[in-house]
Amino acid sequence: MVENGVRTAHVLVIGSGGAGVRAAIEAARHGSVTLLSKTIAGKGGCTPMAEGGYNAVLREGDAPELHIADTLKGGAYLNDPALVEALVREAPDRVRELVAWGAVFDVGPGGGVAQRPFGGQQFARTCYAGDRTGHEMMQTLMDRLAATDTRVVHECAAVELLLDGDRCAGAAALDREGELAVYLADAVVIATGGGTQVYDISTNSSSGTGDGYALGYRAGAELIDMEMVQFHPTGAIHPYDARGRLVTEAVRGEGGRLINDRGERFMSRYDPERMELSTRDVVARAIATEILEGRGTPRGGVWLDVTHLPPRQVEERLPIMLEQFLAFGVDIRTEPMEVAPTAHHIMGGLRITPDCATTVPGLFACGECSGGVHGANRLGGNALAETQVFGRRAGLSAGTSPERNGEVTPAIERQLGALRERFDGYLDGDEPPGGVVRRLKTTMWNGAGIFRERDGLARALAEIEVLRNERLAALTERNLIECCTAVNMVLVGSLICRAALLRPECRGAHTRRDPSCELPPDRSPYGHTHLSLVDEGIVEAAS
Amino acid sequence: MTAVTIRVSRFEPASGEPARLVPYTVEVNEGARVLQALHAVHEQDPTLSYRYCCGSGQCGSCAVRVNGKPALACMTPVAEGDVIEPLDLPVVRDLAVDLVPRLERIAALMPGGDGALPDAETVDRLKELCDCIECGSCISVCPAVAVTDFAGPTAMRQLERLGLDPRDAGDRIDQADADGLFACTSCHACYEACPKDIQIMGKAIERLRAEAHRRGMTLPRHAEVADLVRTTGRSVARTITPLFEQVDAVIEPNGPVRGEVAFFVGCMYAMRLPETALDAIEVLRRNGIRVIIPREQVCCGSPLIRTGQLEDLARLQAVNRETFAPYPVVMTMCAGCGATLKNDYVDLPFRVMDFNEVLSEFGIEPPARLPLTVTYHDPCHLLRGQGISEQPRALIRTVADLVEMPAYCCGSGGGVKAGRPDEAAALGERRGEAIAATGAGQVITSCPFCEFHIRSHTDRPVRHVASLLLEGYRAEDREAG
């Protein structure tokens, strides 16, 4: 029995960020759609926080081949080429579509969407709306969503995918009151975003807890490259509670300079050609190295300086940065920002085809919860483009899935029974989930951060195993979701550490200190790491 | 880590009990925001309901009231003794309000036109309306929302944003009219509450009203006022002897001249409440200030600007500019005129000062204290239009005991009293109730619109600061014999 009734739709979309909403808009052209959002829809996820921009080939002088080459090189050639191809070929149409739907991008010289340089690109191809690009996209997408018949369920969190045989048939969710709700669908799109909240220092919104990786893994889906965690080079470090807050790459795109405590523009030692606009993995390692070797600021960061830019440029192009730093007493027009790396993006995720099919029938994925688009390191500006290109593709694939008119089968009934037993355990538990999450964050930051080694990863995994066995406690039904989230986060931490142990090389964002990193990435013998309920390993080419 | 004690509003709908403030003492880091304190409270008591998401002021999930004022919990430093309450909207539980129904009244763009990005000039105009994070703060403080079906300030912002966009196919003026375009009292509470500092009245509502006017949708009473201004230079019809005919053009002080102001009287004090203006002149004379009243002055234009009828505005502004050009200090005592001269005139060759500012800056002879307890009604166009709140209070305290009441609009501004009298009356009644709750014997204010309107909604005398001061001086004179 399902006390709360069963809701059905042709397509169930889980997640209300840029990818999920785009998927729902597309799927709604083909049938009924329900969109589950664990926040008020439109406010959650990382899209509304995305500042810098959206990469698309729009202008004379740029070419898809250049964007593909930049993305592959930036990704240390670990990207899935078919996904990169789709990203690059369709990103321009998707941004034009956003414009037609009303997005207020900045206007470039000579009209059309303005573009600025971002790291690792041969051409200034990052479209932007000041430094609130994602917010503008989200407003536009929510407008479009409102014009469809999509049923938006706010503040209702998916806690488990439901399987009918090997096929995904829907999801179980907890609503705001902590009541179990069951959603059945012919096809399910998982668009839950990333999960760097598993790290102590992270740019992610509170919803970046990696639920999609955990839901997919438990449902039997395969994940790839989970060790590939991007540390954004520039996060705020002060005050303590603001640590990790994103300082957009647009700051460097506009001409910002990185300077250590000795006044040296240190990027000249790491990438003299591209300097501050090198790729994020390189810049993050450079900053971390400066700090580790004692050339950091007293608070443990480096300086990011735009005081040489005209104040008007800062005000017009970086208004959110100006506002956020002013709120903490720093006027970036006259003083440098103090920054350090912060966990930002998980390049790995659910393995998908270019049509966004996961390895579980009936289950599609798009956006940050999927893997393979960005390889071992993501270029700034490629994530927002990914949300739109693959959001549409996932919505199309799910929307055109055959109708099945599923119902609550005995198999689903059993899963719901198991879920209720889990909930009863939480209501009877003794360990507050907040403490478990805090311990996980510290463990991950110390053991699976920018620089990694086997022993540290193994120790982190051992600690994670301890956390996994804690008897999580929910005081009321409304706290059940906190336990479910903590369980997901612990699982995501485990996936990252296990994948990091599987990859015995330095590649992109994954820096192992123990094995040597002799080979250039384009000649690495290694392919994707992969993890699933039944198997894990790394692809190794026969030499 | 340091300990702070904050009080948090707790409300459980199923309990049938009203909300109550519960103190919590929590450890927070240096520089912590309200949100971190709430996280710490939640660790102590996991039953606390509150919303948050991005933690960096970009998603608008965590707006609450901190010490009575809307603020984003994630961006507001926490301080000892802070009182954290939900926004003044229907509460779901504790600090979580029922936001979605309000957000659903914000219009969505309907794609039309050729779908191309507008030119840079249009985009610049759109951008200043695009920063809204839909936190609900403006809706929660809007007096019109409280008593009418007004869709709310940010809904008007969105309609102006859509109306400006060539890609939008909707008719946003008709929609604005249906959603309560003329309900806004121009109190600027929305601007004060907005974490993104969007000036919704000036940048959206006045512009929508101007467009509605071009389409002939001006309310009949507003059109009558504009006709009056066009034909007489005044927004108030002559029914009594105007102030200008009761006094000389130059009024010398009683004693030595300590200062001089040119008096911008305004239509209400000139044509309807001249006795209040006479009280002010008398107070200025006692304090050594020469008052010059140029006869050529005309309406400041505020009733036209607030209702979108801009045809005669430039002429009025030119006359006033020229009339007052010879004087270094121009004094207003109408909050609306003062805010208009300060905010809607560009590069005036003189300094505009409100009556309360003039007296505070020159200093006053202390009046006798009266055995009176009064409350003060902040005129919106003085408090938020000019940032003046302390000066009138200090002046009042020289004469009487002051008890405070919450500052919100009485309903007389923005053309609402003339155009939507039921709404104005409903807001006036709320004011009357707030006044009664203070137990004060009199209401002091500093705006003729408020003075005139509140009189209909309270049994207490409603008077200008000047009239109270003058009463103090007269008592002083009597005591001196």
Please sum up the structure shown:
The complex is a heterodimer of chains A (543) and B (481). Chain A is an alpha/beta fold and 543 residues long.
**Strand count, sense and closure of the main sheet of chain B?**
5 strands, mixed
Q: Indicate the low-confidence ranges of chain B by residue numbers.
A: none
- Unreliable residue stretches of chain A: none
- Tally the structural domains of chain B: 3
C-alpha geometry of chain B: globular
Gross geometry of chain A:
globular
- The counted number of beta strands of chain A is 21
Helix fraction of chain A? 25-40%
Structural class of chain A: alpha/beta
Q: What Rg of chain A do the Cα atoms give?
A: 22 Å
Percent in strands of chain B: 5-15%
Largest sheet of chain A: 7 strands, mixed
Name the assembly state.
heterodimer
Give the overall pLDDT of chain A as a whole number: 96
